[in-house]
DNA sequence: TAGAAAAACGCAAAAACCTGCAGGAAAGGC
DNA sequence: GCCTTTCCTGCAGGTTTTTGCGTTTTTCTA
C-alpha cells in the first residue's frame, strides 16, 4: 500500500469516527505501529489532525475556531498565566489583549481584585464580568471573528485616549532582533495603540513563541518592560531580551 | 478511550448536569477513581472547572448564571425569537440589544445570512462570530455586568453615528399608555440611542412583559414599528398597540 | 472529636512513543 | 544492465506517559 493512500485512509477514518486509535489502525492497515505513528506525526505537522497520546483527533477548519483553541490550552500557557497574575495589583488600570493565554490570566485573578480593565475582546469582557471588584471597559470596533477581537480605526482611537498602568499582550512571535510580530495586519495597529497607552508592557509568551517571527511587525522588543515565559527556557535564550532592558518573569 | 476524549466528556457532563460526582464518573467512564481525580485536577488547573471535594462544579458563576438563564429561556421566548427571525433579511444593517430573547434570535439566524449587526453586548458579539456572512460591529463602553452590556456616554455616542435598518429590542416592560420601560437607568439612555438610529424598531416581548411597567421610561409605544410576541395573547390586549401604529407579529 | 469518605502521594507495570539503524523497493544516472 | 541515491518500512532499545493500587493525609459529617 502506498504511503499517500494510507494517509488518505487515516484522515478518512478520522472524519467518519471522530477519533482514531493508533494501534487499531496498524491492524486495520496491516502495517507496524511505528509506521502509523510516523504517519500521524506527519499529518499532525501538516496540520491535518491533532495528535494525542494513543491516537489522534480531528482538527478541521471548523474546529480551528476560537472555542476549540480556548480548550487546547497547553501547560505552558497555564504556567505563563499564573506568573503573569503576580504583576497585577489593586487599583491599577490594565489593558488586556484577547487570546487564550490572557483568558487564563483572567480566570486566575484574585476574586477580590479592585481594578479597571480595558479590553477589545468581547470574550475577555464576558469572563471579567464575574469579578465584582473590576470595572470593565469594552473597546468596540469591527469584530475580527477568528480571534474574537475588535479592530479598526475606531478601536485604535479609543485606545489612544487611555492611560493605563499595565498592558498584557499575548504574543505570537517574539525575536530579539525582529521584535514582536503578529499574523494579522489589522490587529497590529491595535496592538501598537494598546502598547503606547500603557506605562508597563507585559508580553505573555509560552515557550514555542520565543525566537520565532510572524508576518507583520508590531514593535521592537525594547518596547516591552516585562516578558513572562516558562521556567524551562534556557538562560542563553533569555539573555538577549535582558540586554534590551526587558525584565523576565517565570512561574 | 483517549484521555482527551474522556476529559471532553467530563466537561460535557458538567455542562449538562451543572455538577459532577467523581466516583459516579469513574463508573460511567469505566476507569479508576484516581484517573478521574487526575483528570479533574488537570481540568481545574487549566481553569475549565472548579474542583470541589467529591466532584466538580462549573467554573464561572456568571457564565453559569448566564448558561442557566439561557437554558431556562421559556417557551414563550423561543416562540418570540423564532418569529423575530423572519423580519431579518440579507443586506440589512441591524442593531441588536443584549438579553436572552435576542440571544435566541441570534442562535436561530440562517447560517448563510449576509448582514451587518451592531451590538453593545459582548455576549451577543461572541455568539455572532459563528456566522461567516455577518459583519459584527461591537459598541464599547463601561460594562454593566448584571446584563453584560456596554453602557455610558461613549456607547450612546457610538450608536448615534449609525443608521440601521432594523433595531431588535428585548423588552422588560411594555404598556400602551406608560410606554417602554426598563429597570436600569444607564441602559435607558443607550436604548433610546439605539432606537433613534434605526428605521424600524422591533420590540421582542414574551407574554409576561405585556401590560407591565418597570422603573425607568425609555420611549412611548409609538416609537415602535413592530411588536413580536406570543400567539396566545388575546386580541383585546394587542389592539391598543395596533391603534398606536405598531405592527404585531407572532409565531 | 471520631469515623468515613475523598484526595494526594509514591510506586510500578503497561502502553505508547521516539530514535537510530538496516533491509528492501523504486527511481534515475552512467 | 548496473550502480547510486532516495525513500519507505520494520525492528530493537531506551524514554516518556498513562494508569491502577496501596498508603498516608486531608476533608467532611455526625
Mean pLDDT of chain A: 89
Categorize the overall geometry of chain A: elongated
Classify the oligomer: homodimer
How do the strands line up in the largest sheet of chain A?
6-5-4-9-12-14-15
The structure class of chain A reads alpha/beta
Number of strands of chain A: 15
Largest interface (CB within 8 Å) is between: A-B, 39 and 36 residues
- SSE sequence of chain A, one letter per element: HEHHEEHHEHEHEEEHEEEHEEEHE
The radius of gyration of chain A is: 21 Å
Roughly how many Å apart are the termini of chain A? 49 Å
Give the low-pLDDT segments of chain A.
none
The number of helical segments of chain A is 10
State the helicity of chain A in percent bands: 25-40%
β-strand amount of chain A: 25-35%
Q: How would you sum up the major sheet of chain A?
A: 7 strands, parallel
Summarize the structure in short.
With 251 residues, chain A is α/β, with parallel strands linked by helices. Chain A has 10 helices and 15 strands.
Overview of the structural elements:
The structure is a homodimer of 251-residue chains. In chain A, helix 2 crosses helix 3 (33-45) and helix 6 packs parallel to helix 7. The first copy, chain A, has 251 residues and is an alpha/beta fold. The longest helix of chain A has 15 residues, at 3-17. Chain A has a 7-stranded parallel beta sheet, sandwiched between helices. A 3-stranded antiparallel beta sheet of chain A has the order 1-3-2. A 3-stranded antiparallel beta sheet of chain A has the order 10-11-13, covered by helices on one side. Chain A has helices at 3-17, 22-29, 33-45, 66-71, 75-85, 100-107, 122-128, 153-160, 185-196, 235-243, and strands spanning 20-21, 49-52, 55-58, 93-96, 115-119, 134-138, 141-144, 149-151, 164-170, 173-175, 179-182, 198-204, 216-219, 226-229, 247-250. Chain A has 10 helices and 15 strands. Helix content of chain A is 39%, strand content 25%. Strand 6 of chain A pairs antiparallel with strand 7 of chain B.
